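Technical annex, item 7. During the second reporting period the consortium partners agreed on a shared format for inverse folding records so that results from different sites could be compared directly. Each record opens with the tokenized structure and is followed by the designed sequence. A conforming record, contributed by the partner at site C, is shown below for reference.
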């Protein structure tokens, strides 16, 4: 496993991480035993960056990750997120960036994870009602208190990132980035590089679609959250399936899996980019790790760029209400 530094933060992590969200929510039936085995296999393979959030479950994913890393804490760069305030009586997600909530959320995450310090603590989404300086200022207080080591933001606009960095150095910005989601190239990546902020790419396999494993809408379990995403519905599904098929064709020519090719493309976009493909199964983890050693030729990169220009995917990334929370 190779390593990469997140911007100019000094925080070094494995060149790919492991997204743990799907182990507890959104993508079908849970299997905690296999999920913990997958986390252990990731650590054995040299993956250090584990990514979770308090809202995943809610709460149970942090507990799962905490259970999995017992006795192996020194092998892990532990990242979690806060911001979505959970109310079991209200399914509408509310974002809270108030300083008091920042402190309360961190303390709760530390308890669930069973650790004394969080290595990378993200604001999951920006609270439009709270100046980013106030939220980041409270996060900086957590760092001074020794509860977190590095600060991160998720799905923010370049202007917001600049304001945040003026308040306190930001080590990482996490946003969706893949062959079919190239919006970060419209200013976010440039701002990260200007400010010395690392970029963590979530859903680098297009929520699993670019792996080529999903062929029909019916392949999603009844409770799979992707059923609600515009990109996986109706005519959008058919259009996007043709895109996934192009990855499969190029991967076959290369002699690798579609997932490996899609991940190799993300890795090739810069040494400051760390993708965190999510999986809850060891067989897919092993496949993803294989992408780390792949070097794409100029012709291969050109073919992928030609097949996946900006905005080529049909449908929005999220349902409308969730989409409005990104890019603030």
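Designed sequence (site C submission):
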């Amino acid at each position: 496993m190779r390593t990469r530094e997140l911007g100019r933060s000094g925080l070094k992590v494995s060149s790919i991480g492991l997204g743990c969200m799907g182990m507890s929510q959104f993508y079908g039936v849970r299997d905690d035993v296999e999920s913990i085995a997958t986390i252990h296999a990731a650590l054995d393979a040299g993956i250090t960056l584990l990514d979770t959030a308090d809202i995943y479950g809610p709460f149970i994913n942090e507990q799962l990750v905490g259970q999995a890393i017992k006795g192996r804490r020194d092998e892990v760069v532990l990242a979690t997120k806060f911001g979505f305030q959970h109310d079991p009586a209200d399914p509408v997600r509310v974002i809270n960036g108030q300083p008091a909530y920042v402190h309360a959320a961190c303390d709760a995450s530390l308890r669930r994870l069973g650790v004394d310090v969080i290595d990378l603590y993200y604001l999951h989404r920006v609270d439009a009602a709270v100046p980013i300086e106030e939220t980041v200022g409270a996060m900086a207080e957590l760092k001074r208190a020794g509860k977190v080591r590095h600060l991160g933001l998720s799905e923010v606009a370049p202007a917001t990132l600049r304001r945040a960095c003026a308040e306190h150095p930001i080590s990482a910005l996490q946003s969706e980035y893949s062959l079919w989601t190239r919006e970060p190239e419209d200013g976010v990546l440039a701002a990260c590089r200007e400010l010395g902020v690392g970029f963590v790419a979530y859903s680098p396999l297009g929520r699993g679609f670019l792996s080529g494993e999903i062929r029909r809408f019916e392949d999603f379990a009844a409770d799979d959250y992707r059923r609600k995403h515009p990109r996986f519905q109706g005519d959008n599904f058919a259009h996007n399936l043709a895109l996934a098929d192009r990855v499969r064709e190029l991967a076959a020519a290369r002699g690798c899996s579609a997932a490996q090719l899609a991940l190799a493309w993300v890795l090739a976009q810069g040494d400051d980019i760390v993708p965190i493909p999510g999986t809850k199964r060891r067989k897919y983890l092993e496949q993803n790790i294989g992408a780390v050693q792949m070097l794409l030729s100029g012709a291969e990169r050109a073919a992928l760029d030609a097949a996946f220009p900006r905005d080529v995917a049909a449908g929005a990334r999220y349902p409308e209400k969730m989409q409005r929370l990104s890019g603030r």
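The radius of gyration is 19 Å. The first helix runs from residue 32 to 44. All partners now use this format for quarterly exchanges.
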